[in-house]
Amino acid sequence: MGASTILLMNYADCPLPVACIVLDSPFACFTELAEGLGSQMGIPKEMFNALFPMIEQQIKMVTGGMEIRSLRPIDKVGSLTFPALFIHGVDDTLIPMDHTERLYAAYGGSVKEVNYCEGDHNGMRPYDTLDLMFAFI
To answer: Do 120 and 92 contact (CB within 8 A), yes or no?
Structure first.
């Protein structure tokens, strides 16, 4: 969620300059992610589609109006130009790798790199990936 939050951030309101961003396993669209996770749990698409509006309403109520369908970094990533490093674990079963691939392809900056590394979504990144991150920063 943090990497996608970075992509959704309003940088006009940022009090500090941003030199670059490092994005580890970002999702491209929350609704797609939720539907995919539901499918992994055996929830038929029709049932997901029937239940999702109720989930949306509950989230809207408890957050003071957040629209989860608006959590679509893929719609904003083309306007970002900071140097960006995208990282994704090849064994990630939470966020499919195609989310990172689509975000990387759509990214608006000319300085961008992508690294696919060993590991799952929450696992420690390998030392060579950490070295790459430090060198990028």
So the answer is: yes
In the three-class reduction of DSSP (H, G, I as helix; E, B as strand; rest coil), residue 133 is classed as: helix
Question: Domains of the chain, with CATH numbers?
Answer: 1-29+72-137 (3.40.50.1820), 30-71 (no CATH)
Structure tokens at 70: 């608006």
Q: Look up the pTM and report it.
A: 0.92
Two tokens at 30? Answer: 């929350």
- Residue pLDDT, tens place only, 12-47: 888 889 999 999 999 999 999 999 999 999 999 999
SS3 for 52-71 is: HHHHHHHHHHHHCCCCHHHC
DSSP state of 64: T
Beta strand 112-117 pairing with 84-89: parallel
What six digits make up the tokens of 136? 């990028």
**3-state class (DSSP) for residue 113:** strand
Burial-class residue 35 by CB neighbours within 10 Å (0-12, 13-18, 19+). Answer: middle
Three-state SS at 50? helix
